[in-house]
């Protein structure tokens, strides 16, 4: 129940924020979901995967296409967007299970990601090609999301529900199995944990969460273009998860909130964005590899990632 | 009592080496059977074969009468085989409690949907598991370590936690691979007591690889000796202690 | 004849891929780290050459040698300054570190390059070789020549010289090598440098015949991976073979199916190989799934 305090408190934000700030806050909500999803695979499962922007994109495109071509209302497009991401995650992980997994997961997810982006670019009629698709007005159960404030409350609801769901999963036998595989896969098998199944499950879950984030992104930005989902975007995702804290749900939130607003400052100067985020990653890897969450947990031990519930 | 585990003529070969040849071995519930032998005799390979990490070339391995050779490690574990690892198999980033909970994985009756939506049934199953894990840590004298992260513990504490984790699901067969390595003598005495309780109180069939002879003599009901991949002797501790073939194997391996 | 002509130009491309894949494989075999920033090192090689040749006016050969030497130093610096420092952390840290410095390199290149795609002046001014109906362009001849020499030198060095024996020893067993007195840390640094230099050689060769842009790094990375996967991950000869085959496959796909598919041939190769034969053409058998 303590979990809902923060979202409840957040409800007051629109009272103080102007539309631009509100937009940034909305973007933070989207990226919280992105980071939470990515962290499942990168931090909890401990696997290097490059597919996150692709999953983000497939969710965004799925939602945009359903809304623009099939006339679906936004609220109906959210789950399909998630499912699209989940399917992509499933395909990538299942393919990679056949090889030397550590590297092949990375390589296959890179290949899948770029392959997906290629289809966005060449999908012409369906995806709008390089110009992308305009996203029609979002309808949330009859309420038109035509202001940043309206979007905020819808996003807050969706993000809260999803983060709670992920928290439930992590603080159970499922979460334990996933991190067990990360920490010692051979030993996990010796405890009757079907490792292959959980690896795929982690990817599917991650894909679903990031896919849903994509649908929110599509509505927030109003347009989906292939360029938003390439390797440039990916470094931001990596940075959020690492800076926040690998494997930490709290960390994902911290990382997203801390970094979302930054890219805007770097757009003017070509190259500065990549240099900054690459450099940020390097600094944290050298100095604080466990991220902000670990720093926070030093003052509030209750923030330490726990994989069970006592209640 | 019929043997729980039965190895017949088991041979294992890898990288051109005959690691095990024609090994016969059995294990019974409530009994501690030690497997000893010089380095390279094939002891850990034997454990790896039983638990499915290494394929066997010839022979059969049966658990409760049913063959388990050829199954994957997690399938074999699902049938009730648990083990510890020579180099320590704990999950370093998790607490002792979380490690033991991982050991209870197969016993927790909560499905994906239940966990996802936080249903009362799922939460009850999880709560029960946490209680069980804490009780087990208490029973084996390490409840004060429950909420400490494993990688911050001493070697002896880690070995104990690994054993607690391995027995959490009450496995009929337990393979302990050199549990006493790096432990100080007083801790070793405690370990002997723990192993005897596992067999005596919990009725587990324990197979034990160990180099520390006093520990083996004190803990084992029977000893099998391996050398060069073959079993060269088997019997009660007193008999093995004086067996010429065994002495030859150890002394001859200078 | 069409197919053969395609194959020929494919081999020229493939030679570059072979070099990139080999350099990645060398670093992997020598230090067990897969460098996810390797493509950006290759791009950096091309980039440095561009700066020296176009902005500083150096002749191509001098610029190329300087670029390779500088990249060698950069490779060593990265290994010693960054990779060594995080040896104790989680494995995923290495990969993230490689990704991170890759992005930094890309950022520097973009910062200096701006938003344009930059051409280099033509360098390989040999007349094309005409064999009946087949034409081998001057570019292709130059690439074949240089790559051929480099590969021959590399394999000679690796298998025949004492330095090569050291490499093989450390690849087999680091602890064993340390026990016989080989300075493993220095070895790691040198091998990263060597990998970077070899990769830079690829970048330098490709620079005059391609349009340069900072995103080239990602493309090289994928081609290198595809080649390594095809040839068998971890196999040096496999990396070379994989690169050549990939180059040919791309041209054949482009010629017979659609030029749009050239870009994604590498991705499809990766997925197909893993689906059908995960160990690749010459790779070691894949360990059993647990």
Describe this protein's structure:
The complex is a heterotrimer of chains A (about 300), B (about 250) and C (about 290). By secondary structure, chain A is mostly helical. Helix content of chain A is about 70%, strand content about 5%. Chain A has a two-stranded antiparallel ribbon. The longest helix of chain A is centred in the last third of the chain and has 27 residues, at about 195-220. Chain B has two domains: about 1-80 and about 170-255, 3-Layer(aba) Sandwich (Rossmann fold); about 90-165, no CATH class. Chain B is built from ten helices and ten strands. Chain B has helices at about 45-50, 75-80, 95-105, 110-115, 120-140, 155-165, 185-200, 215-220, 235-240, 245-250; strands at about 5-15, 15-25, 30-35, 60-65, 65, 80-85, 175, 205-210, 220-225, 230-235. In chain B, β4 and β5 form a beta hairpin. Chain C has helices spanning about 1-30, 40-55, 60-85, 90-115, 140-160, 160-170, 175-180, 185-205, 215-230, 235-255, 260-275; strands at about 130, 135. In chain C, β1 (about 130) and β2 form a beta hairpin. Chain C starts with a helix and ends in a 14-residue tail after the last helix. Classes of the chains: A mainly alpha (about 300), B alpha/beta (about 250), C mainly alpha (about 290). The interface between A and C is large, with 49 and 53 residues.
Task: Give the SSE map.
The complex is a heterotrimer of chains A (311), B (254) and C (290).
Chain A (H helix, E strand, L loop, with lengths): L4 H6 L2 H4 L2 H26 L7 H18 L4 H23 L4 H22 L1 H4 L5 E2 L4 E2 L2 E2 L3 H23 L2 H11 L1 H6 L4 H27 L1 E2 L6 H14 L4 H11 L3 H4 L5 H16 L3 H9 L12
Helix pairs in contact in A: 3-8, 3-11, 3-12, 3-13, 4-5, 4-6, 4-11, 5-6, 5-11, 8-11, 9-11, 12-13, 12-15, 13-16
Chain B lengths: L4 E10 L2 E11 L4 E5 L6 H8 L7 E6 L2 E2 L5 H6 L2 E3 L12 H8 L8 H6 L2 H20 L15 H13 L5 E5 L7 H16 L4 E5 L3 H7 L2 E6 L2 E6 L1 H5 L2 H8 L3
Parallel strand pairs in B: 3-8, 3-9, 6-7, 7-8
Antiparallel strand pairs in B: 1-2, 1-4, 4-5, 9-10
Chain C lengths: L1 H30 L6 H18 L4 H24 L7 H23 L15 E3 L2 E3 L1 H23 L1 H11 L1 H6 L4 H23 L9 H16 L4 H21 L5 H15 L14
Antiparallel strand pairs in C: 1-2
Helix pairs in contact in C: 1-5, 1-8, 1-9, 1-10, 2-3, 2-4, 2-8, 2-9, 3-8, 5-6, 5-8, 9-10, 9-11, 10-11
